[in-house]
Amino acid sequence: MGKFKRTLITTALPYANGPIHIGHLAGVYVPADIYARYLRLKNEDVLLIGGSDEHGVPITLKAKNEGITPQDVVDKFHKIIKESFKTFGISFDVYSRTSSEIHHKTASEFFKKMYERGQFIEKTSEQYYDEENQQFLADRYIIGTCPKCGFEKAYGDQCESCGTSLSPTELINPTSMISGNQPVLKETKHWYLPLDQYEPWLREWILEEHKEWKPNVYGQCKSWIDSGLQPRAVTRDLNWGVPVPVEGAEGKVLYVWFDAPIGYISATRELTPDWEKYWKDPETRLLHFIGKDNIVFHCIIFPSMLKAEGTYNLPDNVPANEFLNLENDKISTSRNWAVWLHEYLEDFPGKEDVLKYVLTANAPETKDNDFTWKDFQARNNNELVAILGNFVNRALVLTNKYFGGKVPERGTLTDYDKETLASIKTIKAETEKSLDSFRFREALKNAMDLARLGNKYLADEEPWKVFKTDPKRVETILNVCLQITANLTICLEPFLPFSMEKLRGFLNMEKLDWEKLGNTDLLLAGHQVSTPELLFEKIDDSVIEAQLQKLLDTKKANELSEAKANPAKESIEFDDFGKMDIRVGTVVEAEKVAKTKKLLKLKIDTGIDKRTVVSGIAEYYQPEDLIGKQVSILVNLEPKKLKGIESQGMILCAENADGTLSIVTPDQKVKNGSEVK
Predict the structure, then answer these.
(1) Domain 574-675 is found in CATH 2.40.50.100
(2) Where is this motif: 'HIGH' region (predicted)?
(3) If both were cysteines, with which of 262, 404, 421, 552 could 107 make a disulfide (CB 3.0 to 4.6 Å apart)?
(4) Does domain 6-119+194-321 have CATH number 3.40.50.300?
């Protein structure tokens, strides 16, 4: 820790318009939790702060689409997010929310102090206004044609088709998403943070004083600063958020990017009356754990806000991660292309640590990485089960078998014994070094080397063979194995907390501090251990196939929703249409046509007669389900022989984008023979 007495860890506030997915976990919450648990094991003063980001336009859009209030939206998702984190074992000291009273108070005070010190500039600009609803439109409330690629549903801030950043006035044919009308330009006043004034200071503070920051973070900051910073609006015309606490600012709220990071302060304030000690004492170290899309806010904008306010600590480090993809495709909430945490917890009960392990081993620390279900299965089966679980199980089973579950005495140590025990301290040093520099993938690999060490030692010493000739030697071998096992409960605690609690139960031992790691007498001779259960279990192919099928179904649903209707056929005369005689009839008999996959033979009461129709719907309907069903039938179609059966007409079906067929049927029962007009 050096010059610091305590550490305050903040985690990016997840947006409360949807649940948590593995991208969030890998990018922010798993590494932050590992680090907080590690510092707690070292008995350091540390707080892990989290909360839901509940303001902004996407919340109001979702509320409008669902016909509920923004508060209803955030209440629903805040609850899901908070409970998922708790079950998963993210060890927040507080998990707050930005719709709370204490947050509104804190954000207002922060703004007011900056305002009174003259830290903002006021600017009047023209913005789009919906005359019917009498409100200014946030960028996301405006859609139009992208001037770059011609996509017709580009938002006022970005085209989701080509990715170009836009301003609403660049859109061709802009439309209000509220009324559907074309908006007009109208003057409005807003307050701006003059980031350009902080450029020389940021250049010094980041580029000169924080060269130790991760290359991806430092590089993005340098790029922003070198491009030249511009004043940035801190208020918006919106009715959902923290009201701007200034006279003449009615109908305006703090811009969500301004109020959200203040959520870290309000959450700490909610947790402890000593909150200022964690934010204003220079002996406190501030760390922001975030994803790469938040680097500019946490390294440039929020520090500029803190600097302007004047009394707060600045972040010491911002160990941001890159993005995690899913099965070689970008995770997308809108496309439902994600592994959702609350669903994982239902599908894999008791396997919280497996997901933590895989997300850490595959963390996108320096570049985007990919989560695949096959890799998840392989890491569970080949590493957690075959390396860690296997070693622990063998050490305990052999102790129970040969010595009744009592830790045996350690006799004379061979050079190999001494070398093996000394390796524990080396592994501790390597793991510590990686954790201290936020290299969590490497830290986990180093910690797992302890289990690899144990496995190799057991395989080399073969106590099951030695016992036949030298049971005394086996006492020493198993004592060494049990000391490694006890050390595992400390070394892997930050990464696999549920599993290590289970392992301590097998060993009948208390939770030990990090300083004890490396000791070779954690379990004394004569100490009783329990009969072990399996620490981890294999995951079968069928379980993984079910998850892959879920994703395939999602992909199919996305393709269907994005599919465009075929263009209309050439125009016909009304008289041509009038020649078709379409009636409603009822299916009275139905059977499959032998030696065909698609054909059904139907008998239909058309109100005129009872006739046979052969239809290619066998893949979508069972014969027995059709009896009694009313259908639309073209009765004046020339008869045609199909598989030797004369078909006297055609029933009408709608063909979906994926080729599936649905029978066109009246929405209520009508008399057979009724004409379709």
Answers:
(1) no
(2) 14-24
(3) 262
(4) no
